[in-house]
Amino acid sequence: MRSEVKEPDASGAALVTVAADADAAQASGRAADDVVHHARRRRFSILGGFASAVLFAAALYVLWRTVSQLDAADVRAAFSGVTGRQTCIALLLTCTSYVLLTGYDFLALRQMRLRVPYRTTALASFTSYAVSFTLGFPLVTAGTVRYWIYSAKGLRASQVATLTVIAGITFWLGMGVVLAWSLVREAGAIALLAHTRIAMNQIAGLVVFAVVAGYLVWVSIKHRAATIQGWRLELPGFRLTIGQMILGAGDVCAGAGVLYVLLPAGHGLSYETFLAIYVCACMLGIASHAPGGLGVFEATILVALSGLPGERVLGALLLFRLYYYLMPFVVALLLLGAHEVRKRLRARAWAAPP
Fold first, then answer.
1. Where are the bilayer-spanning segments (predicted)?
2. Integer Cα distance of 201 and 50 in angstroms
3. Out of 75, 199, 312, 316, which residue is the most buried by the measure of CB atoms under 10 Å away?
4. Among residues 106, 108, 143, which one has the least CA distance to residue 128?
5. Helix (H) or strand (E) run with residue 215 in it
6. Which pairing describes strands 231-234 and 225-228: parallel, antiparallel, or unpaired?
7. Distance from CA of residue 68 to its chain's centroid?
8. Which of 203, 207, 153 is nearest to 176 (CA)?
9. Whether 261 contacts 89, CB under 8 Å
10. Which segment of 49-63, 98-112, 228-242 scores lowest on mean pLDDT?
11. pTM (predicted TM-score)
12. Other Cβ atoms closer than 10 A to 228
């Protein structure tokens, strides 16, 4: 019997070599693309940070110029001149806004098909927003507070991150609906305050409305999901998105109402007109990355309402900060402290021998 040993095929070896070289070139190309993408993201991040810093500095300058022309005694008088009725309505609207905020987490958990008791949802939502509104950096502060509470119910960090993003979408949908409505409905009054053209305001409102409506149609046609660096985010469908719009708009209207009722009497400003001013001030505050839009929000309101007594407007803004930001922040810290004490007591009770 004769056995045959075949010599290696030179053409086959060449093909293997070419394939290996192609794989190496492809890997090298992906690495180069990653480097370019990272560099581009870094440039955009630097530009975004620079733009936010410029906006914050400009707002502080405008705020300083405006406040420096006011009389401190008049500001104190305006601060103390707020009636008990105004205070009660402002506190009631603050509570309404934060109750609606708990619905953000409720809808997000429903989208994620997770069952969490509402008392836990309310605690996590209220405390996370109260803390992030005051300290700023909501993705970090709100996400941390949420994870601290939700992790005890078995939620993973990725699920908490998904929940936070969906809640953020609810907020922006609500802002968009309110802004579009007020720009179209009160285009003339806003034009007098902002020194713009009526047609420009109406066009801007219609554009915002088109964006919101386009998003609604987009998520309604079929199931949508966004993938961010390997992280998959399933977006709510038609019914939940409608719920997000209604809930977000209600929250924005309640928050705006807190400041509106604190404004000096006889200002002659309709609530719908004020909504556009409030939403724009909030957006500029968010863009500045200042905690709670501090400085930027006040400067925008003072400039937009320059026809009103500046001392009284500033007094209303100070009370708004107290009622809508500082008081909920203190309550949130107390609730978080009580939550931690309760967890430790339960842990000790379970660890104690029978």
1. 44-64, 84-107, 128-149, 161-183, 203-221, 241-263, 275-297, 317-338
2. 28
3. 316
4. 143
5. helix 198-221
6. antiparallel
7. 31
8. 207
9. yes
10. 49-63
11. 0.77
12. 9
